[in-house]
Amino acid sequence: MIFRRKKKDINIEEVLETELKVYKTRLFTARLVLLLWLIITIGTLGGIALFIGFFGKGEIPVPLQPYIAVININRVITTDYANRLMSRLDKLKREPDCKGVLVLFNTPGGSPVASDELAEYFKRYAKEKPLFGYVQSMAASGGYYIASAFKPLLANRNAVVGSIGVIMPYYSLEKLGQKIGVEWDGVAVGKYKALGITLKKLTADQKKYLKENLLLPTYDNFLKVVAKNRKIKIEKLKGYAEGKIYLASKVKGILVDKIISLVEVKKRLRKEFGKNIKFYQLKVYRKEGFPINVKVNTEIGKVETGEVFGKSGIGEKLR
Fold first, then answer.
1. Region 45-72 average pLDDT
2. How many CA atoms lie within 13 A of 75 on its CB side?
3. What pTM was computed for the model?
4. Of all helices (H) and strands (E), which one includes residue 234?
């Protein structure tokens, strides 16, 4: 005899409830795994960003690795640039792994105020950390104003130095304004208050005023600062201070101290600080899109542009 089991009635609601519990359990597990993955990922990216941030600020170019920071002054010198540069260099003072600073000059000059600020800043900076200077391609006008503060002042034989003088560019649009029917119709109180209106040519009296009250005093300051920094009598310096530019090799012992290549400078720095010392180029302005501002340079002679300021002691050994 065949006995047949009686089929048990299936409760649809119980089946659905069981399936729903299983689904909720799986969903909770998946969400938990995703959350943990996100936490780990964000933590990792945060650590990387923090590390990169230090590099971008120049605060930790290479952890626990002795290096010489390289600053390339390769643009027109403005007060904004000077302030940014001084801020970057201030941070290097607090970095024990930074053994010195090599400043390279490739600049045509710029603001007299910014140049004076940087020249004075470098003099004081050299008292706290070894500072070395090298004119790689150009230190003209305000660039030379700064360069004169470095002792010894090193330069490439074909570098351009000098241009000791003051200029105030002015462009008159008076004739253009007459052609298109535009004229200046402002109101000013004071005889010289309306100076610099480009729709009017400067009068002889205005030019004399600007020359006597702005250009000549600035030029006088330029001469005095360079003469003091280079230990040259003003009378002798005036022969090189008519706005002329010179190859560094032609004014050795006057406007520069030693003719040398950047390769040789770095070779001697390695001899002084150790053959394993690294050179890292720090940028004053950050590039958009990626925060790292430090460029690794482990080969002699790879750093571009420049000029620098060296003090006695280590700097003297570069002679």
1. 62
2. 13
3. 0.68
4. helix 234-237
